[in-house]
Amino acid sequence: MPALWIAHVTVTDAEAYGKYAELAGPAISKHGGTFIARAGRYVQLEGKERPRNVVAKFPSVEAAVACYNSAEYQEALSHARGASERELLVVETTE
């Protein structure tokens, strides 16, 4: 079953986070992920507001988790740590 990778982000260091974004996109693509939403317009209805919201679709939960744990993504993530406050989850779709 396909899965969605959903990130809610507040960027605190735009320069460092830019390096994360530069490296994360190719890592996500390499693992079969495609972006559905990336920092677009949103309406916060409940919970903590994060101004950057990203959704990527993967072939499976396992593919999304493998991406997260990959050396390429972990290298990208090293630039986001300390440069953002984030929540990230992977959820299986009903397709």
UniProtKB/TrEMBL annotation:
Domain DUF1330 positions: 2-93
Superkingdom of the source species: Bacteria
Xref: InterPro entries: Dimeric_a/b-barrel, DUF1330
A Pfam family assignment: DUF1330
Gene3D superfamilies: 3.30.70.100
Name of the molecule in the record: DUF1330 domain-containing protein
Species this protein is from: Ruegeria arenilitoris
Organism lineage: Bacteria, Pseudomonadati, Pseudomonadota, Alphaproteobacteria, Rhodobacterales
